[in-house]
Amino acid sequence: MIKFLRTIAGASAILILSATPLLAQDIPAPQGDVLLTITGNIQMTNVDDQLQLDRDALMALEAATFETSTIWTEGVHSFQGVSLATLMEALGVTEGTIIATAINDYAVEIPVSDAVEGGGMVAYLMDDAEMRVRDKGPLWVVYPYDSDPAYRTEVIYSRSIWQLDRLEVVN
């Protein structure tokens, strides 16, 4: 009976842990193609002094979702990804600037102060589908533009970088 209870307890712990979003310190080195590399003043790394995230690692982090229209697409779309707030918290970042860079080396600066609950996210799904490079993917920094007029400004639009593949946190 004791052996049976230990087996059940172990299985329960595995189920509970697998349902819990990963923290950065739990992220192993990527097994698949790296979608996002994060460097700079970060507390968590998994490959040398970087945090490299493949699709599975990104999707294992606590997900955020919202629906919004954008100035680059028709109609309202559903976005899913990792909120900037969750990502910065996992990395131990509380201040500074995020330099977000796309696959074509285009870069923008995003203040860490943008990393607030209900704010922007690194989206990996649009309308429940992976985004292709030709459709602004595979990663796109989006904000809930429809939720607040403060998100419908040229400054915020300029921070909405698509084809994102790198973040660097600087002070």
Automatic annotation (TrEMBL):
Keywords: Signal. The keyword Phosphoprotein does not apply. This is Molybdopterin-dependent oxidoreductase. The keyword Nucleotide-binding does not apply. Residues 1-24 form the signal peptide. Gene3D superfamilies: Oxidoreductase, molybdopterin-binding domain. Residues 74-144 form the Oxidoreductase molybdopterin-binding domain. It holds the Pfam family Oxidored_molyb. It comes from Loktanella gaetbuli. SUPFAM superfamilies: Oxidoreductase molybdopterin-binding domain.
